[in-house]
Amino acid sequence: MNVLPVDLVALVGTVMGISIVLFPVIGLTARFALKPTVEAFGRFFEHKELDESVHILERRMTLLEQQIRSLESSMQQVVEATEFHTALRSAPPQSLGSGSEASDTAQRPAG
Question: For residue 69, what are the domain limits?
Fold first, then answer.
């Protein structure tokens, strides 16, 4: 079988000539074919990121609500302690034993 010689310069010239027309055609076709797909992916990931950010904000709000409840509880304890100390300071002092018992032991004969 005889193999004919290949003209390399003509082959490269032909490929380059076809490429000049073929690359823009492939690019335009890909742009119009892939644009809806790329936009759909963009909306999907944007929506996913939005859901994640809403979830993060909900978790932050829950933690803030817990912190507010804790602060309210602490404030209630402070108010109760303050009222208790105020009641202690305003109450008249009471001795350990009443005055009549002390006079009874002094008047009783030892025996």
Answer: 17-86
